[in-house]
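Researcher: Here's a chain I'd like modeled. Treat it as a single chain, no partners, no ligands.
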Amino acid sequence: MKLSTKLTPISSAALVLCLSSSPCPSFANFQEAELPLALKIIRTNVPDETFPVSKGVSTTLLYGDGLKMISSQASKSPTGVEIQSKVEGYSIKARVKVWFDDPDDEDSSKDREENFIGSFVLREGESALLSGLERHNIEPFELKAVKAESVDVPLDQAPLRNQTRAIQATGLTLNKEVHQAHIRLKNVSGKNIIGYTICDYEPRGDSTCQRGAGLDLRPGDEKTLLMGFPSLSFRRGPGGFIELPTDGHELVIRTAVFEDGSFEGDPDDAGMILGKQARWKIKRGK
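Model: Modeled as a single isolated chain. Structure tokens:
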């Protein structure tokens, strides 16, 4: 079963692994800003988590510590909850299923046992309690549709540093609800830019980097790139998870890679981006 065009696994282990590692690189293609709606997941003793929702289907998985079981004596407990969501009109439509296999085991999906919990249509500010989870030994939690608009940040006040000459930042908007940044970039060089690296540097020195290949940014062209900012950090305390301060994060445009194979910035970034580009060309038979 193909889950979706977007897949977001949620568990305490996954959060700690991605958000505390340095670096935590990823490859991303050009994305424009989505509609200002987001889905908030509200659970007991866990920080609320909010995810952007678009016109395309997104799938969010909760498993492991992301699920709180009602009884430890149950003969059969589920291993995951799947939430598929998309924007329809001015609402979020969400479909919820329970899984009875290992979400990390690709082979287990062939014989997966699933139970449909329900479909929910939520307008901004509306919420739904997933009471149907109780019959599967999962403590019910809440879904809520929230407004998630981005705010323009003046570039002279932006937490943004540019280590390239070929790329010029012409705009920055931050979305505090879903912790995303939309960065408007312009190619001010005389060569086509096919790749980039932009990093979120934390005050303690760790970084989370996004590397993009296949950018195709021609001289004078502008595009908007989307990335997470700031990354959330959590610490387990006596009362559950505590969100750590995120002040002091900085976005850094670190590398620009050109179509002719040259680059500005970090050589390791450039090597990975050019390698990705070469693999794409081989797959396309070029």
